[in-house]
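Model: Ready when you are.
Researcher: Fold this.
Model:
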Amino acid sequence: SIITPKSQTTRHRIIGIVNTPEYQVVYSDTPGVLRPNYKLQEQMLNFSLSALDDADVLLYVTDVVEKTDKNDEFLSKVQRLNLPVLLLINKIDQTTQTELEKMVETWHEMLPDAEIYPISALNNFSIDRVQKRILELLPESPPYFEKDALTDKPARFFVNEIIREKALLLYQKEVPYSIEAIVEEFKEETDIIRIRAIILVERDTQKGIVIGHKG
């Protein structure tokens, strides 16, 4: 999934597949969970809730700056599930040991059955421990996808997402995260891929920001 400082950057449920000679792990990356205020957020929440139905392990990723009471309703659903929960507290390089211990205690009170892993994705801290625990918890089954599959989404989808990511990073607060990109042409040639895409914004006033002065 694309990553930007804007919350709710991920809008879709995106499958990522890890294949090795010994196993296949299918990760389902969903939009961040929050109380929906409009239709788009309702749809995004539905993606997250639907992922719970076919999950074998739930990875709940938070960080040291996120408020623990932000997703009370979703967390109450998680507690009712008969599902192993690994709660990952990311960005621990940005806090103190004392603050981290308080945070772990708070999360343990909210999700008493969850296994809590303080991690730093940036510094690759404890990621191997989490991966090892995932493999221990997953049930054995035939592979769901072909051995060379990386995702269930077509290349065009990721081109759309990359363009949207660059727009969000470039314009930041000038353009809301509801900006959208649509690939209209995707041609693979011998040494180049030619792409023609359009960017959709909410209001006419935002067109000038994206296109530029006299663009």
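Researcher: Now this one.
Model:
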Amino acid sequence: MRAYVSAIRYFNPGIDEDEAQRIVAAIARESLAAHVDPRLIVAIVATESAFDRTARSSAGARGLGQLMPSTASDDHVNDVEDIDQNIHGTVLTIKGNLDHYARYDTQRQYVYAIAAYNAGSGAVDEYHGVPPYDETVHYVWKVITLWRRLWGMSAT
């Protein structure tokens, strides 16, 4: 857990230790419940918001996992700036994507699920893979690169 707190503080040097620990605890709890690799969630949140729970995108996405309002309401997230609620919605969304692409081999399942987190499953389904959008191609590369780096970190 200590390594993940350090990773969070690397991406967001202004975050205090207590908030970083709360984020790690939420990621651990929600990932365990959904059977999703917590390192994947750390990589997604780092890429989406750099662990800034007040982050807002020009498209309207908000919070740690940059949830869109429709996604947040579907996942019963009432306060997107709430650490526990946002991480819950983030994990449910990626879990839903992983389930949606479970018919593929593991590598494609994860690549498509990550792409769908960024571009939506409709776009991934339409293109039968990662949509040829520069943003999405870069997003998938960035998340997977960070995820691989996190595999080398000790969770203690």
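Researcher: Key takeaway?
Model: The chain has one domain: 2-151.
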